[in-house]
Amino acid sequence: MIEQIGKLIKENERFLVVSHKDPDGDAIGSSLAMYALLEEMGKTVYVENPTSPPPRLFAFLDDYAKIEPVTNSKDVDVVFILDTAEISRCGVDREFLKDKTVVNIDHHKTNAGFGDINLIEPDASAVGCLLWDIFTRNGFDISRRVATYLYVSILTDTGSFRYGSTTPRAFEISADLLRRGVEPWHIAYNIYEMMEFNTLKLLGLVLNTLETYHNGKLAIVWITKEMFDSTGTTREDSEGFVNYARGVKGAEVGALIRQDGENYFKISLRSKDKIDVSRVAESFGGGGHKNAAGCEIHGTLEEVKNKLIEAFSFLG
């Protein structure tokens, strides 16, 4: 499969790279890594995302401004869809794809394989690890620029190498990337230590909502539209807030309920080890990984909260 993807890259000239909406570090990092590699090979390549502009958290990356809105109009032969469990989440129309080769590279176990070529490895720490395999095994040069984007992918999707998804392979690949010139402090500083004043004000409001259920094993926080408005923040400023709920001593699961519309809430779920939150997310039409998943639920805040509490009743 990896050699097949390498052959496709060598034999074609026009490419599009896309990833899921509300992109995280893995989606941004892997997309820019593929974009940069193809550009350095002299290919014609575009990188798009349905969330435009993407989170400004990643604006420090050199090619951040190259990420365009999804247009469904680029004249390309190959479309790489990265870190996307369901094709609907990347904003690309199936009609646009019908005469193109679609390469689906992902590590979500819920990915059913919608591409012409599907490289799906649920045990991979990040899509960046899969791209590193593709690049190295096909003899493609990994420049410092490409290595930086791969490192962003791996660093963020392993929670700075803290999550259960962190594997020896992730460390081995990261060591190789550092040898290629990646500056870990520069990346960590920009991602984790550049919180805006208003973001911290929002965090204070969110932490004040903290509640626990099921003998302290489920911790929930929430954000309403009024909280965003009062602090002058947006939903992207809440990135990572769910981890404060998971970090409560004794909690097995942390949940963040974020209001995205009238009676419409985005749910982020995180677990510490043994609890598979992706199963709960799937019960609401979402998905994700064992220890990190998400979904959307309609209803009032109280109704949504009660649905989550009931869904995690097995915590006892």
Mind sketching the topology for me?
Layout: H1 2-11, E1 14-19, H2 25-40, E2 44-48, E3 67-68, E4 78-82, H3 94-97, E5 101-106, E6 117-120, H4 127-137, H5 144-157, H6 168-179, H7 184-192, H8 197-207, E7 211-213, E8 218-223, H9 225-231, H10 242-246, E9 253-261, E10 264-271, H11 277-283, E11 287-288, E12 292-298, H12 301-311
Parallel strand pairs: 1-2, 1-4, 2-3, 4-5, 5-6, 8-9
Antiparallel strand pairs: 7-8, 9-10, 10-12, 11-12
Describe this structure in words.
With 316 residues, the chain is an alpha/beta fold. The protein has two domains: 191 residues, inorganic pyrophosphatase (n-terminal core) (Alpha-Beta Complex), CATH 3.90.1640.10; 118 residues, Diaminopimelate Epimerase, Chain A, domain 1 (Roll). Helix content is 37%, strand content 20%. The chain is built from twelve helices and twelve strands. A six-stranded parallel sheet has the order 3-2-1-4-5-6, with helices on one face. It has a six-stranded mixed sheet with strand order 7-8-9-10-12-11. A hairpin with a 2-residue loop joins strand 9 and strand 10. Helix 2 runs antiparallel to helix 5, helix 4 packs antiparallel against helix 5 and helix 5 packs antiparallel against helix 6. The N and C termini lie far apart (44 Å). The mean pLDDT is 96.
